[in-house]
């Protein structure tokens, strides 16, 4: 099974987020240098998320797609809910410069929910009886676990959770989009049109996720101006890398087992 090999690879990338969390926060001369360093340091994990997308895309079948999409529909709802809750509960802490960006993200997640639901229906699936995977529940609770631990840096801690997950999603979605056409059992059967809808949706959503990640880049470039701020960012960002990686592999596992 694909998921077994992916879990083996998780063991190989664990040290990446551990090292990110423990890096010397005094080593950066500017916020831009810090942002560039983070993307480079996280790259092995990001490339693994591409691999997860590719491995799933080239081996799944219609029941696997349906199982996978059921979690995906819930994820889009949860992402929109997270951002809305963040700006509602923590509006006094968030720089108003970023409010319109968060509003745009909520709109994007709502559109993604529509896309996922439409494609799920095209594959003959539904959300009946769905229960979210616990790792994904943990992931979408992470902003409200991590950020409030230091109110002074709450807004950068917020963008170091969900927005870092969005960065991993860019690579994951790219992996699916680049490789789904190689899956002949999807493209040669009665669900070929639905398969192409699925592939194109990954390209569209990837563009949005790049924008969502850019919120963190802009926030960090504005506020990552002290070792203390950087340490707060890295504490949450490292955890976001861990939880998103484990959740994504678990989703492949349970889709292969038809357990979503």
UniProtKB/TrEMBL annotation:
Listed name of the protein: Ferritin-like domain-containing protein
Source species of the chain: Pyrobaculum oguniense (strain DSM 13380 / JCM 10595 / TE7)
Organism placement in taxonomy: Archaea, Thermoproteota, Thermoprotei, Thermoproteales, Thermoproteaceae
